[in-house]
Amino acid sequence: MSPKTLYDKIWDAHVAHESDDGTCLLYIDRHLVHEVTSPQAFEGLRMTGRKVRAPEKTIAVPDHNVPTTLERLEGIISNEEGRIQVEALDKNAKDFGIHYYPMNDLRQGIVHIVGPEQGWTLPGMTVVCGDSHTATHGAFGALAHGIGTSEVEHVLATQTLIQKKSKNMKVEITGKLRPGVTAKDITLAVIGATGTAGGTGYVIEYCGEAIRDLSMEGRMTVCNMAIEGGARAGLIAPDEKTYTYVKGRPHAPKGADWDKALEWWKTLYTDEGAQWDKAITLKGEDIQPVVTWGTSPEDVLPITATVPAPESFTGGKVEAVKRALDYMGLTPGQKLTDIQIDTVFIGSCTNGRIEDLRAAAAIVKGKKIKDGMRAMVVPGSGLVRKQAEEEGIAQIFTDAGFEWRLAGCSMCLAMNPDQLAPGERCASTSNRNFEGRQGYKGRTHLVSPAMAAAAAITGHLTDVREMM
Amino acid sequence: MDKFTQISGIAAPMPLVNIDTDMIIPKQFLKTIKRSGLGKNLFDEMRFDRDGKENPDFVLNKPQYRQAQILVAGDNFGCGSSREHAPWALLDFGIRAVISTSYADIFYNNCFKNGILPIVLPPEAVAVLMKDAEKGANARIEVDLENQTVTASDGEAFHFEIDAFKKHCLLNGLDDIGLTMEKAASIDTFEASAAAARPWV
Ligand code: SF4
């Protein structure tokens, strides 16, 4: 048998039907659903009299526009349209009999944090969700990607997705990371190297010593942003860390099933000699704490750098950079560390897990945020929030002047009231710095949790290594 | 879904690279539970100022492009989120085809589910069509899916590639779910054997 990549193996195990032209029906093991991209899909089922084919494999949780302020505990969603969407999900989950974590359930949170936390996401699975950051689940060696609403309806009705196979891309990070460098810096550095379209048409497998050394939380951060590099999905082969993370979670296999699962999971790696259609290698030692300066995740530089000039780019990017600098209110040559910040957001499916909060808290501990700074921590799930409270991390943040919120997407996409005002500038641990992403005319700099914490204290983008 | 066979229409030039889904339809319009009515908010933050007044410089606000049916766009169009609201908004505005060198994967797929044809052409061809589009109402661009060609106003034609299955569905306005359900027996068989091999799933 010819050697296979990890992607090949998972793909082959899920093809339910293949047409002569290579179009496949890929069987879906887990379908995650949230309130924003699903109402039209359920509506479609109702209109055609169709059912959810596998409700036991379908899991829903509202996250995108739930408020993260305490009023929510009284069931209040002051935004009328947001409330209608959440209520629609409540009703759809009930009517179609799918698993559901309602807004005020302790286990509620961002769908990509809840899935792994509850043990829904397991190695070797196919996982989809009507959300591009579904790539997150690839950290478990699951083939996971985002789909549109028509595809959500297709999966609900048929438990399959019409797909053609992507190409294989290897991203290897060799060696060790230096102090102050995190998973977020790896994933941004990769996008900086490949561009936001560098992964288009590919499924990326991240490998190498620096990836192996990451915790499961860090691996999720890396895979989360595979989509920002244009890839359909990101994957990391499962190993002991994966099994340890999964074991004992509510929906993880138990007893004889566990043994059987483990036996299969241990075959999930890329064979020696497998073919890559594209490969890049970065040295872990070369990666520095990075920050984005523009309005695309590929606009990324080490924190020690200066704002680039449009003329240093080529093609359509010259115009795009001019526009980005104008939007961001930056001038070429300006030191990145001189950029003043007025808002800090720590959270999102990229960096809203316990390890992220610990890393930020380690920097914040015993200090106060800069006068006039608005800083908030939005844990990725109710369980992360609880754990952080038990570990005393919540106290560190509130003592420093951070707001301590309930779980949700919050200012990652600012659908709920957590938004930037025009011209406000945010150091954010989220994944997109697009124009208007965090609020109309708001300016976003993507950073790691530790870098966000450092900026909250100094009031400007800061090299976290100076505070360690 | 509407069929797509052939259109001849005005093309609006948007040379910017990396036009993302947040630009195409900002998140405040994702709160709808419907698919229709999003066209008025297409490119909202570029098209209007805060008070809802039109920005006269934005291409789709110029008189000659208000009826545009085609967009000619910079590289990597539609990057970002999976929101199908992006193609819904384009369609609702009246855009039936996009021409670029590349698209983000999810956006590309979403177009086909909504009767929009995303055409991939090499940079030189996109440059020619971009110039053509800049002529406004004086230039009509023709898109022919059956023959897989885009023809500029001066008659220069470009051939484009497209997946045969996607083409078939678009030409005939076919419903994916209906097609897949015809293969229900294969899914049943797969499900049974997968359940035996991986009972924990
Ligand atoms: S946290 Fe942000 S990126 Fe993640 S699912 Fe929510 S909105 Fe999307």
What is the fold's blueprint, element by element?
The complex is a heterodimer of chains A (468) and B (201).
Chain A: H1 6-12, E1 15-18, E2 24-27, E3 30-33, H2 39-48, E4 58-60, H3 80-96, E5 99-100, H4 111-117, E6 126-129, E7 143-146, H5 149-158, E8 160-163, E9 167-174, H6 183-194, E10 202-207, H7 209-212, H8 216-224, E11 233-235, H9 240-246, H10 255-265, E12 278-283, E13 290-292, E14 300-302, H11 317-328, E15 343-347, H12 348-351, H13 354-364, E16 374-378, H14 382-390, H15 393-400, E17 403-404, E18 425-428, E19 443-446, H16 449-458
Parallel strand pairs in A: 3-4, 3-6, 4-5, 6-7, 9-10, 9-12, 10-11, 15-16, 15-18, 16-17, 18-19
Antiparallel strand pairs in A: 1-2, 2-8, 13-14
Chain B: E1 6-14, H1 21-24, H2 44-47, E2 70-73, H3 85-93, E3 97-100, H4 105-112, E4 117-120, H5 123-134, E5 140-144, E6 149-151, E7 157-159, H6 164-172, H7 176-181, H8 184-197
Parallel strand pairs in B: 1-2, 2-3, 3-4
Antiparallel strand pairs in B: 1-5, 5-6, 6-7
Bound molecules: iron/sulfur cluster.
